[in-house]
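Service request form, structural biology core

Requester: graduate student, group of Dr. S.
Request type: structure prediction, single chain
Budget code: on file
Notes: please return the result as structure tokens.

Sequence provided:
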Amino acid sequence: MSFRYALKIEYDGKKFSGWQSQTLSPVSVQKRLEQAFLDLTQEVVHIYAAGRTDSGVHAEGQVAHVDFQRAYSIDRLCKGANYYLKNSGVQILNAQSVDKDFHARFSAKYRIYRYMLITRPHVSPLWGDRAWWVRKSVDRARLLDAAELLKGTWDFSNFRNSACQATNTLRTLDQVGVKDSDLFLCIRFYAKSFLHRQVRMMMGAMIQFATQEITLKEFLEYLSPKQFIKKPFTAPAHGLYLENIVYNDFVF
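Core staff response, request fulfilled:
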């Protein structure tokens, strides 16, 4: 018999090689968490995440699940694991017991990613490694137009990394929101799932269009992969945040 727990996790992407453990890579978020649980419980576990974030990508609301051979209190799992995770760049914000049919990745209804831009004339010493500083003038109207164009169902073949293993490149963007503040432009992307690096490449294309590096025709050609082989610019990882994972009957 085993016991399944869902975890809500926050981490600083610049300290990790990404979520997923890889033999030749530096430390991953997954590997760091699994080691913390081993230290805490003496159980070897495998943690499954809702989103496999790349190196440098941050998370405020990553969700994962893990199975243990024994039952543990939520307080012990959170406080105990966080003791072994101190100063590591990752912390468990919450945990709860879930049914065995819950899967952090496959049970997700949709995912929310936020991309943060700094558009002022000078880079921020406080946010330089937390948001992408765009030096060129960003046309807000063109940025909003690009956001509207991306919504809906498209073949996003031009918006994925060459290492992407997805066999189906059709994805549906339910919403793309743009919020302007004094320092930041925040763009939120809502979808059930994304291709590898899709969000960063969509952000790159939006900025190319908003800074008038490409025309509307060229932007639309990105969304017509059979007619176009050029890929959009990939926005830097440090501006991207996995903000939240939404489930039908599951709330942290």
